[in-house]
Specification:
CATH topology of the largest domain: Fructose-1,6-Bisphosphatase, Chain A, domain 1
Shape: globular
Order of helices and strands: HEEHEEHEEEEEEHEHEHEEH
CATH architecture of the largest domain: 2-Layer Sandwich
Number of strands: 14
CATH superfamily of the largest domain: Fructose-1,6-Bisphosphatase, subunit A, domain 1
Structural class: alpha+beta
Distance between the termini: 43 Å
Number of helices: 7
Strand order of the largest sheet: 3-4-5-6-7-8-9
CATH class of the largest domain: Alpha Beta
Number of domains: 2
Largest sheet: 7 strands, mixed
Radius of gyration: 17 Å
Oligomer: single chain
Amino acid sequence: MNSANPTPAELLLVCEQAAQAGAEQLMAWRGRFQTREKAPRDLVTDADLASEQAVRRVIAEHFPDHGILGEEAAVMAQLDLPYCWVVDPLDGTINYAHGLPCYGVSVAVAHQGQLVAGVVFDPERNECFSASAGGGATLNGQPMAASQAETIEESLVAVSFPPRLDDESLDLRAFMRVGPVCQAMRRTGSAALNLAYVACGRLDAHWAHEIHPWDAAAGVLLVREAGGSVSAADGKPFDLARADYLAASTANLHGRLLPLIS
């Protein structure tokens, strides 16, 4: 493996290995972890920390000179490095803490600020959602594709809310506008899995205004490579540092949702 100039396929392989290593820690820590609040209604567990350490070890073994931006060690300047790995060791921490089986590990890598490879791994279902730039998207090694939903009325849509939700929340306002129009609305508690589900056709759209790069990076690439449409929440090109997004299965659905959520 060429650590100085790795191919997307080489980067994707390490994404998969790192995500699986993190997922193994999450499964091992079930039922015996302690939690603390990083902020009101924003938890971190021993499992988050163990998972991130495992992910970092795998990355460092292959690419010791690459930057790593992780949820539990968030140094945004890492994004300015030529290669930066963007890691959420446990997306859906509150679900995990309550024993709700909807959480996962998200690992992506960007080169010069552009997403090159990414994986969302669901340890409860043993599902590995993978994508590389220009290489398509797969679920457990099989090609996957976004749905063909064109209208809001036929769409199953997911929303993400920030930890501190109030009446001024852009996501709540968008929820109130889209909810009466779409076929149905869901909130799973895991942005990474929501994006993976848009990529494989289980959901038709998902948005988030208040989000972090580690929540969105791998999932945004999954949707793109599965044939979906992704932009920033205001319709501008997706910016990894900002990370807000609207992801939809088709360009037509994206265009119909954009004025309602932005």
